[in-house]
C-alpha cells in the first residue's frame, strides 16, 4: 500500500513539475514524491519537517485549515505565511472519496505554478490540474478502502476489549481471522490515549505507524481527573479533578511488538498518537504489559487504561506511562471511586492547595525534610511550619506510619 501511494504522488509531481507530499487529514505524512534537481530552495522548512518528522506543527495546520481545505472539492492555492513557518506558497489538492476528505496532496510553488489555472468561477482548470485531481481521487479510493478495513478491525478490537469471559474467545477468534496472517504470533501490547476526540465521525484510520494492527475509540475517558471538557487542569494539586465525571473517549491501539520485553513500538505509537489533533488537551497515554495471545487483551486494556489515568493524574509519570512503572497507582486505579476520607477532606479544599502539595512532596520524599525542602524550593523552617498546619488541619501525626500511609494514599487517590 505505501508503494501505491508513492507511485501516485510521483504521477502528480511529474504532471505538474513540482515536489509533492501526501498527508492524511490529521497532517501526518503518508508519502512524498521524488525531489530531483539541485534547487534546494524547494525544500522549505514545512516540507522538510513533514518528511523528517512525519507531521506538521499546529501553526501550520491552523494556517492551512483557515483556507477551507477540509471543505474544498477542487484544487486551491495557499499563500505563504512566514509567521507560521510557511515560507513558500502551495497548491492543495483535496483527496476525497464519495464526498469525504481523506487527506491532502501538497505541491510546492516557487512561482512557476502561479499562472496555472485551478478552475472555478466559470473558468475551466488547466488540463494538468484535472489530471492531478483524477490521480488524487484514486488516492482517495485507496485511503477509503484502508479506512473501511481499519474500521472493521477497530470494531472487532472494541468487541474483544468489552467482552465478558464467556464471549472472549469467540471475539478473539473473530479478530484473529480479520488480521493479516500471523499478525498475532508476535507479542502484543495495548496503548490507551485519553482523551480522544471522536467528533469527526468520518475519521480515517491511522496509517504509517509501525506495528499498529488495529485502533478503536472506546467509550469514556481514562479516569475522571482533568477529563475532556473539564475546567480543571490535569496534573494539578490533589483533589483538582476529584469531582469531575468521565467525559470524552479513549483510543485503544493494538501494537505488535518485536520481542516480548521490547515495548519500543508501543512507545513510538503512543508518542505519534499524542501528537494527533484528536488527542485532547492534557492527553496522556498508557501501555499495558505485553501479552502473547489475543484472548489476554482485555487484561492488558485495563492496565493500559490505569497507566493512562495515572499519567494524567501524575505528570511525572507521563505523558506515556507503562503499567509496570506507575507504582502505587497500580493498586489505586483498581479501587472503586469513593469520597475522600473525612480526615483528609479539609486539606483538599482550594484554600489549602499549597499545604496539600507540601504534604504530598514530603511523603513522596519518604519524610526526608532536606529532600522535600529542596524539591519545593523552600526553607526547612517553612516546611516544618506547613507540616504543622497539615497536622492541625487533619488531626494526623506525621511521625506515625499509619497516619502517613493514610494521608499519602488519600492524596494520591484525590488525583484520580
From TrEMBL:
<protein>
    <submittedName>
        <fullName>PucR family transcriptional regulator</fullName>
    </submittedName>
</protein>
<dbReference type="InterPro" id="IPR042070">
    <property type="entry name" value="PucR_C-HTH_sf"/>
</dbReference>
<dbReference type="InterPro" id="IPR025736">
    <property type="entry name" value="PucR_C-HTH_dom"/>
</dbReference>
<dbReference type="InterPro" id="IPR009057">
    <property type="entry name" value="Homeodomain-like_sf"/>
</dbReference>
<dbReference type="Pfam" id="PF13556">
    <property type="entry name" value="HTH_30"/>
</dbReference>
<dbReference type="InterPro" id="IPR051448">
    <property type="entry name" value="CdaR-like_regulators"/>
</dbReference>
<feature type="compositionally biased region" description="Low complexity">
    <location>
        <begin position="219"/>
        <end position="229"/>
    </location>
</feature>
<feature type="domain" description="PucR C-terminal helix-turn-helix">
    <location>
        <begin position="355"/>
        <end position="412"/>
    </location>
</feature>
<feature type="region of interest" description="Disordered">
    <location>
        <begin position="219"/>
        <end position="247"/>
    </location>
</feature>
Amino acid at each position: 500500500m505505501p508503494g501505491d501511494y508513492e507511485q501516485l504522488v510521483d504521477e502528480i509531481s511529474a504532471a505538474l513539475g513540482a515536489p509533492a507530499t501526501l498527508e492524511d487529514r490529521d497532517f501526518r505524512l503518508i508519502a512524498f514524491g521524488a525531489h530531483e534537481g539541485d534547487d534546494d530552495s524547494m525544500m522549505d522548512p514545512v516540507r522538510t519537517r513533514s518528511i523528517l518528522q512525519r507531521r506538521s506543527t499546529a501553526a501550520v495546520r491552523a494556517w492551512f485549515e483557515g483556507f477551507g481545505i477540509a471543505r474544498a472539492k477542487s484544487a486551491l492555492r495557499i499563500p505563504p505565511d512566514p509567521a507560521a513557518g510557511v515560507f513558500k506558497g502551495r497548491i492543495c489538492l483535496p483527496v476525497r472519496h464519495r464526498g469525504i476528505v481523506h487527506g491532502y496532496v501538497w505541491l510546492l510553488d516557487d512561482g512557476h505554478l502561479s499562472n496555472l489555472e485551478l478552475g472555478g468561477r466559470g473558468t475551466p482548470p488547466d488540463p494538468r490540474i484535472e489530471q492531478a485531481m483524477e490521480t488524487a481521487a484514486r488516492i482517495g479510493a485507496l485511503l477509503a478502502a484502508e479506512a473501511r478495513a481499519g474500521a472493521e478491525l477497530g470494531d472487532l478490537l472494541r468487541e474483544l476489549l468489552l467482552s465478558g469471559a464467556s464471549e472472549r474467545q469467540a471475539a478473539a477468534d473473530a479478530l484473529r481471522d480479520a488480521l493479516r496472517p500471523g499478525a498475532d504470533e508476535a507479542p502484543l501490547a495495548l496503548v490507551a490515549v485519553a482523551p480522544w476526540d471522536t467528533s469527526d465521525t468520518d475519521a480515517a484510520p491511522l496509517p504509517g505507524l509501525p506495528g499498529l494492527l488495529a485502533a478503536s475509540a472506546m467509550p469514556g475517558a481514562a479516569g475522571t481527573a482533568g477529563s475532556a471538557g473539564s475546567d480543571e487542569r490535569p496534573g494539578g494539586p490533589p483533589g483538582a479533578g476529584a469531582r469531575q465525571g468521565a467525559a470524552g473517549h479513549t483510543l485503544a491501539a493494538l501494537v505488535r511488538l518485536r520481542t516480548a520485553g521490547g515495548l519500543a513500538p508501543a512507545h513510538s505509537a503512543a508518542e505519534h498518537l499524542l501528537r494527533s489533533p484528536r488527542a485532547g488537551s492534557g492527553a496522556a497515554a498508557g501501555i499495558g504489559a505485553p501479552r502473547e495471545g489475543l484472548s489476554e487483551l482485555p487484561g492488558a486494556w485495563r492496565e493500559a487504561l490505569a497507566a493512562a489515568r495515572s499519567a494524567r493524574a501524575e505528570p511525572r509519570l507521563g505523558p506515556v506511562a507503562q503499567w509496570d512503572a506507575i507504582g502505587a497507582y497500580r493498586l489505586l486505579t483498581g479501587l472503586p471511586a469513593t469520597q475522600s476520607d473525612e480526615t483528609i477532606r479539609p486539606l483538599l479544599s482550594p484554600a489549602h492547595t499549597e499545604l496539600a502539595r507540601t504534604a504530598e512532596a514530603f511523603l513522596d520524599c519518604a519524610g526526608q525534610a532536606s529532600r522535600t525542602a529542596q524539591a519545593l524550593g523552600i526553607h526547612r523552617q517553612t516546611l516544618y511550619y506547613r507540616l504543622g498546619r497539615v497536622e492541625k488541619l487533619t488531626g494526623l501525626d506525621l511521625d506515625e506510619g499509619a497516619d502517613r500511609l493514610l494521608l499519602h494514599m488519600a492524596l494520591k487517590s484525590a488525583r484520580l
